[in-house]
Amino acid sequence: MAHVSDFLEPSDLQRISNLQVLARQVVEGFTTGMHRSPHKGFSVEFKQHRQYVPGDEIRHIDWRVFARSDRYYIREYEEETNLRGTIILDRSGSMNYGGGKPGQVSKFDYATRLAACLSYLMLQQSDGAGLVTFDTEIRRYIPVRSRVNHLSVIMDELQNGKPGGETDIGEVFHELVHKLHRRGLLIIISDCFGDVNNFLKSLAHFRHAHHEVLVFQIWHPDELAFQFRGWTQFECLERDGVKHLIDPAMLREAYLANLGKFREELTKGCRRHKVDLVPFTTDEPYSKALAAYLSRRLARG
Amino acid sequence: MSFLNIGLLSGAAALSIPIIIHLFHKSRFKVVKWGAMHLLELVLRTNQRRVKIEQWILLAIRCIIPLLLALAMARPLWQGSGSLLGDSKTSTVVLLDNSYSMDASHAGVTTFSKAKDEAQRLIGNLQKNSEVQVVMMGQGGQGLLDSPTYDISRMTQLLGKTSSGSGTARVPAALDFAATTLEKMHEQARQVIMLTDFQRTSFEATEDKLLASSLARMKSQPSAPAVTFWDVGQDVKENIAIESLDFSRLMIGVGQKIQIRANLRNFGDANHRDLKVTLKVDGKDKTTSQITLAPHAKAQVLFTHAFDSAGSHVIEVATESDALAADNSFLASIAVRDRLPVLLVDGAPGATTDDIKSETGYLQIALSPFAAGKVEMSDLLQAKVMSPEALSAKDLTDTQVVVLANVRKLSDEQVKALEEFVKAGGGLLLFPGDRTDTAWWNGALAKLAPLPITVMAGDTKEGSPSVSITGQRFENPALELFNDPRNGTLSEAQIKVWYKMRGTEKTGGPLDPVVLARLDSGDPFLVEKPFGDGRVIACATACDADWSNLPARPSYLPLVQRLCVYLGSNVFPPRNLEVGQQLISFLPVDTVGKKVVLTGPDLIPHDVAVVKKGERGVAEYGPVFTPGLYTLAPPTGTPLHFVFNTDRRESDLTRLSESEVNEMAKAHGVAIVRSFNEYKQLDHTQRYGAELWKWVLWALLGMIFLELFLQQYFARVRGKL
Lengths: 301, 721
Prior knowledge:
The complex is a heterodimer of chains A (301) and B (721).
Chain A: H1 10-13, H2 19-31, E1 44-51, H3 63-69, E2 73-79, E3 84-90, H4 107-124, E4 128-134, E5 138-145, H5 150-160, H6 169-179, E6 185-190, H7 196-208, E7 212-219, H8 221-225, E8 232-236, E9 243-246, H9 248-272, E10 276-281, H10 286-300
Parallel strand pairs in A: 3-4, 3-6, 6-7, 7-10
Antiparallel strand pairs in A: 1-2, 4-5, 8-9
Helix pairs in contact in A: 2-4, 4-5, 4-10, 6-7, 7-9
Chain B: E1 2-3, H1 16-27, E2 30-34, H2 37-73, E3 76-78, E4 90-96, E5 105-106, E6 109-110, H3 111-124, E7 131-136, E8 142-143, H4 152-161, H5 171-183, E9 189-196, H6 205-219, E10 226-231, E11 240-247, E12 252-253, E13 257-266, E14 272-281, E15 284-293, E16 298-306, E17 311-319, E18 329-337, E19 340-346, H7 361-367, H8 369-372, E20 381-386, H9 393-397, E21 401-405, H10 412-423, E22 427-431, H11 438-442, E23 453-458, E24 497-501, E25 514-518, E26 524-531, E27 534-539, H12 556-568, E28 576-578, E29 583-587, E30 595-599, E31 605-613, E32 616-621, E33 628-633, E34 640-645, H13 658-668, E35 671-673, H14 676-688, E36 690-691, H15 693-715
Parallel strand pairs in B: 4-7, 4-9, 9-10, 10-35, 12-18, 19-20, 19-21, 21-22, 22-27, 28-34
Antiparallel strand pairs in B: 1-3, 3-36, 5-6, 7-8, 11-13, 13-16, 14-15, 14-17, 17-18, 23-24, 25-26, 26-27, 29-32, 30-31, 30-33, 31-32, 33-34
C-alpha cells in the first residue's frame, strides 16, 4: 500500500524542517504493508501464534499445534538482528551545491534527509545505527547503538551540521577504518568528488576490514546535464578564490565526456571491490534509497 | 571599386555591434558556486586554448556579417581597369559583316537580317546625342555614311536598307577602317562593336596576327575604344557553291564552240543526287545537267555553247538553291568577237602588200588563211599590213595586236604610242630580222622588249648547222596546244639564224620576262613580258622564211594564230572583276561628255559620265561591293556586261566553335556577346561597372550559415541537448 510520502518529491519534503518527523513520514510511508519484513530472518525469538490465513507460507505452519488442535497456526518470531549500520555523511563544501532555481534541494540537504530516513528506518527495524560526518577530517563520530532513543542523538547531529571545507575522502576513510572495530554495513552518502583512486583504495580498505559498503552517490541534476547558457563564472565551493569565467556551452561536450569517464571509473572500481554504488539525483524520492538499503539488508540475510 | 550608396557604407560601423555584445555578455556573467570543480578544471586545462580560438573565429565571423551587409547595401561596383562611362555620350562604330556568308538562312531568317536587326536595336539603344558610324565589312570596310553622324534615326534608317552578299569579310582590314573612323570621331567614350558570323575562313591563323595588330593599333589610340565582338552566326552547314568557270578558248568568235567548265563544291554533309546544274546565256536557260555531288566533294560540269552574235554576252551557271543562295550561281562576261584586228608593221615590204616575199607575207596568210585563199569563210584574225613610217597612234586605237616584223627602228613618238597601247592592254609581237637595229632594240625599245639582243647567231649558208625548238611542256596558253603531239610539233622547224638574247637578273616579281620556249642551243626562242595591262612577246628569229623553215611547217599557222589570239584576248578593261574593284569601260572618244546608264544587280539605273583620257572616252564607276551583273548601255552600240564575283572562301560556312571564339576574344582582350541582352548587360557594366551586391549578399548568407554551423560545431551540441 502506497503512502502519501511515496509521491512526495524531496523538494516538497523540504518544508518539513524536523528531520525526525520527516524521517517518520518517509519511512512509515515506505514500510506500510511491509510489516512482515522485520520478522524475516533466521534469528528467532518466539513471539506468538497466529491463525493461518491463505497466503502465508506453509513452512511457517506450526505442525505440532496442528496435531494438537487440528488447526493451522503460524509461529511468529521476534527478530533479533546483529546488523550494525554506520552512515558516513559527507559534509564537504562541494555537497553544498543546490542549483540556482527555487525549490531545488542542495546535495547536502538531500544527503542529510536521506541519512535521517535511513537511521530512522534502521532503528525502527531494531538494527544498530551510527553516524560519521566528515569533510577534511572526521567531524563527528556517533557509535552504533540499537536503542530507539539513539535516534535523537543522530537527529541532533544531522540537524545542526553545516557543510564546508575541502574533501579528502581517501584520508578520512583510512582513518575511519581504525575507529570502526566491529564489522557492519557502511552507508556512505557523498558526491564522491576527489581523487577516484584514493576513494577506491579507501573502499578497498573498508572491504578488507570486512565491512559491507553501500555508496549513495548524490548528484545534482545540473552536474549531470551541465546546461548552463551564457557567460558564467564558476566559483569553487571548497577552495576560496578559485573561479573560472567561461562560456559553458563551448565546454559542455568536453565536460560531459569527462563526467562520463569519472563515473565509469567509479562504477568499475566499486564493482571490483564488491561495493554497491547507487547514484542519486537530488530530485529523486528518498524511497529509492530506502529500497536500496533494504534490498542490501535482505541480501545480507 | 566604387559604391553607389557610399553613405550606407557607414553601416559598416555595425561591425562593432558583435564586439560590444561579446564584451557585454562577458561582463554580465552569472556566478555559479560550483561543486564539481575537479571535473570542470580538467576540461578547462585541456580545452581552454581551443575554446579561445573558436571564440575568436566566431567573433570574427559575427563582425564580418554586419560588414558584408553594409557593403551590400552600399552597392559596390567593380569597374575593372578602365574608367566608367556613366551616362556619357559615346562614339560608336558598328562593324556589320555583310559578306555573302551572312546570307545563309536558318529557318527562313538570314544571318544578315538578324545582324541588321540587332545593329538597329543597338544603335537605337545608344545614349542620346551619341555619334555613330556603321561600317560594312565586305571587302575591307566601307562606311554607311561618308562620315560619322549624330543623327541616329537616319543611321537606323540607312541600316535598314543595307543588304549583304558583298564579298569576303576581311576582319583586320575592317578593324583598321574602324580605327581610322574613330580618329575622326569626337566623343571621349568610344566603342567598337563587330557583328559577325565568326566564319572560320575569316578568322584563320594567318588572319590572327593581323587581327592582333589591328586591335593593338585601335587600343593604342588616345581614348581607346571598348571592343566587342557580337556573334550573330547561325549554324548552317549545308551549302553547295559554284566556285569558278573555266573556258576552253582564249577568245571566242561568232559561231565557235566554247567549252565551259563549271567547278562545283559541296561544303556540307549531305549527298546530293541528281543535282541540277543549268547553263544560262544572256539570262536564258540553255542546257541543264544532272550530277551527283558527294559530301565535301568537288565536281565539274562541262557545257558547250556557240554564240551566234558578236558583242558582250553573259554566261551563268546555276544550281539548285540551298541555305546560302549567293554562291549557287557563277556569272561570267564573255566578249564574243567577229574579228580580231592585227596590225602587221612590215620592215621589209615586198612589191605588193600581199607579196609572199615580203617580211609579213607568210604571217599574213597564216593569220587570215580564208581571206588569202579567197574562201567564203570569215577569219577571226584580220591582218592589216603597214609600213613602219606610216604607223601612228591613231592606227593603234582600233587594233588589238601589233606585230613588228624586221622593223629597223621606229621614231620615239611611235615607240611612245606603242608603249601606251601595250600599257592599256594591247598585245605586241616582236620579230627581229636582218634590218633590225639592235642598238635601237636595246635602247629606245628597251622598255617594251622583253630581253635585249646581244648577237646574231648562225648562218644562212647552205649546209651550215641549224638549231630547232626544244620540245618541252609548255605552260603558256598560247603554246599549250603543242603539248598534244597530234597538234603538230614545233621542233621540226630548222632555224639557221637567230638572235641571242641576254638574260637579265630575275627579281622574282610578276613583271619578270618569262622564256616561253627555247632553242636547243639553249638560247631563248620566245620571251614574254607583261607591260602595263598588256603583254609583249619577242621571238628570236624572223617571221619569214629567210632564216628558218618555220613558216613552211604546219605548226606555223597555229603558232602565230595562238600567239596573236593570246596577245589580243586581253579584254581591256577587264569585264570579269572581283568585288571591291572599279568598273572601267573604254568608249569611243565622241561619247565624251555624255552619260551612260549603268544598271546593277539591284536594277536601279545609274548615270555614269564619260570623261576623256588620252584618245578615248572612259566611264568609271565604283568601287563596286555588291556582286552580280552590271550592264553598261553606251549611247551607241550594244550594251557591255560587267560581272563582279566574290571570293568563294565565304562559301565554307563552318564557324568557329563557341570555345574557340571565347579563346580568341580572351587572347585579344575583346568582349564577346551573343544576344542583345548580353550586350545590354555588358554595356551596363562598362557604363556603371559590375554590381557586386549580389555576390556580397551571397557571401553574407554564407557567413550566416557558417556562423550557425560553427557555433553548433564548436559547442558539439549536435542533438545531444
